[in-house]
Amino acid sequence: MGAEWELGAEAGGSLLLCAALLAAGCALGLRLGRGRGAADRGVLIWLCYDALVHFALEGPFVYLSLLGNVANSDGLIASLWKEYGKADARWVYFDPTIVSVEILTVALDGSLALFLIYAIVKEKYYRDRVAWGE
Questions:
Q1: Quick one: pLDDT at residue 133?
Q2: Residue 132 falls within a domain, yes or no?
Q3: Does residue 6 belong to any structural domain of this protein?
Q4: pLDDT in the model for residue 58
Q5: CA distance linking residue 75 with residue 63, whole number of Å
Q6: More exposed terminus of the chain, fewer Cβ within 10 Å: N or C?
Q7: Which residues of the chain have pLDDT under 70?
Q8: What was the pLDDT predicted at 120?
Q9: For residues 32 and 46, is the Cβ–Cβ distance under 8 A?
């Protein structure tokens, strides 16, 4: 590692966006978890962050991929996926397998995270069964 490591503008922007989503997830989880135990607050923080990532990062990826490809798109989200695509080009150009998996994660995982947030906040009896598959 003789050369100095330098963080480019695209990589810095994507890290900043991920940090902002983490901060928003923490703030939202703590707000929703007021008056609850530490375990519930921790789970709410994670679920809020998880839902934000699925809907704010992966959702636009699916949208951009279905309309064309990320390589021909502009904007903050596109630059984040272009940075990610430097390691694996399937994320930059339409790959049916990657897009199919992302559609599933956005639709199923994102929705499940919202459903679990609702179950915890409203103290539904089924919240543990849904989370742990009991």
A1: 55
A2: no
A3: yes
A4: 93
A5: 13
A6: N
A7: 1-7, 10, 129-134
A8: 93
A9: no
